[in-house]
Design the sequence.
């Protein structure tokens, strides 16, 4: 727990460990940082000619944006980028439940991201990634406010 607190993933308050409290601008910056990591990974993956296997139907797609993003960064074959991305993803993880309620991407938007991931033209994926993150950046203050609701507070040890 001390290591996690040292990395900024949790806060230490006396003998207790808590989820860190972020404000809207900080959450907005984390979304922007994740977008930078994803764009960097996409460029590296394209240069390495790593291609995803296109799914045959929406039912076969992994429609988790977080899984899709991790896969995209993982294909960059850059361990430093992957570690930095994972730290950012860990800081954003407590907000996923709220994010889904506030930013309505719909299954179609996530499916389009997954389809663009496997396409040879990376331009569409960049456009979709930016759109996905800009919606969250714009809603960051509201996401933080909603996340402070006790129904979203996950207990820490």
Sequence:
């Amino acid at each position: 727990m001390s290591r996690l607190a040292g990395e900024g993933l949790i806060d230490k308050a006396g003998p207790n460990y808590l989820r860190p409290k972020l404000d809207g601008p900080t959450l907005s910056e984390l979304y922007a940082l994740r977008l930078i990591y994803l764009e960097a990974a996409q460029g590296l993956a394209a240069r390495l000619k790593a291609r995803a296997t296109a799914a045959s139907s929406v039912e076969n797609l992994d429609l988790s944006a977080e899984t899709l993003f991790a896969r995209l960064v993982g294909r960059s074959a850059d361990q430093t980028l992957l570690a930095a991305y994972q730290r950012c993803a860990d800081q954003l993880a407590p907000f996923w439940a709220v994010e889904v309620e506030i930013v309505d991407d719909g299954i179609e938007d996530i499916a389009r991201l997954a389809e663009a991931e496997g396409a040879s033209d990376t331009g569409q994926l960049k456009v979709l990634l930016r759109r996905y993150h800009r919606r969250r950046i714009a809603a960051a203050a509201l996401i933080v406010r909603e996340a402070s609701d006790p129904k979203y507070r996950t207990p820490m040890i």
The two ends are 9 Å apart (CA to CA). Confidence is low (pLDDT under 50) at residues 47-62. The chain is about 60% helix and 5% strand. The chain has one domain: 22-147.
